[in-house]
Structure formats: C-alpha cells, structure tokens
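The records we work with from here on pair a chain with its fold. Taken together, the tokens spell out the fold as the letters spell out the chain. The record below shows the convention in full.
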Amino acid sequence: MSEHDTTQAVTITALAVESVLRFARGLRDQEPDWVTFYREVFGIGGAIDRMFSTRAELDAFERTGEYRQLQRMLAELRAVKQSITSSESTEELEPTRVVTVRLPKSLHLVLANEAHERRTSMNKLCIAKLLQAIAAELVPTDVGAINASRLASERNRKLAEKTDAENS
C-alpha cells in the first residue's frame, strides 16, 4: 500500500448481499416505477443504506456482481416505465429537484452528442450516468465540502428517519 493509498480491505457478508438482492427482486416483481425502486433500494434509508452502514462497506458492495444486477434492474425499470408512467404521477410520489451543474463546453458537447446518438434527452442520459457507481479515487474532494457533505448526509438521514416514523 502506498503512502497515499487509504483504502482498507473491507469484508461484507454474503448474507447481507443476498438480503439486499432478495429485497430488490421482490420489489421489482411488484412492478414499481423506477423512482420508487431507486428510493427503496439505493436511496437514503433504502435496503443498501440499511445493510451497509459505512462508506467502505458500500464501496465493497458496489464492486460486486450483485450490485451490477441491481443496476440492470433499475435500468430495465427506467426503460419500461418511462413510456408508461406520466411525469405527473411520478411527481406526485416524489417531487423532483433541479441541479445546475457547471461544466466545460467540450463536456457539454460530448454529452449532447451522446444523447443524440442514443436517441434520448440529455436529462435522461445524465440521470443514467449519475445512477452509476464510481470508484472513490475518481471523485475529487474539497476539504470545506467534506464537512458540508457530512452535515447534509446527517440531515438527510434524520429526515428519512422522521419520514419513516411518520409513515409508521
């Protein structure tokens, strides 16, 4: 391990992995819209979040074949349900949010070209890309942003717990 390598060997149990996969398969069999599937499996307070509590455990899970199966399930639901589900009914279940991203013109052109080639919108393409797991070492960090991120993460977790308590 180099002096800059901070990765640690993390073991996740086959039981935990199988539990998440079993939950996701059961949910998929109920034919939910993709947003519901994402929220219940990948979202804060979802099956993955409940089973893998540390970033290291989550990173290890994201490298498994089972995680790739979950990604395929989500992609299939996005493809099937987009033509069936109106944006109004999805909006009623979970409001959408707008994120403005500053990016170089060259990256914008690449995304626009890829969206055109795939016969989809840039919005759908970007959502598909955002849903993909990314290796931790490929994400640059800002020292100031780390503390803000922790606070936001804690706030989101508390909000999810409050929502769960209200729905119980």
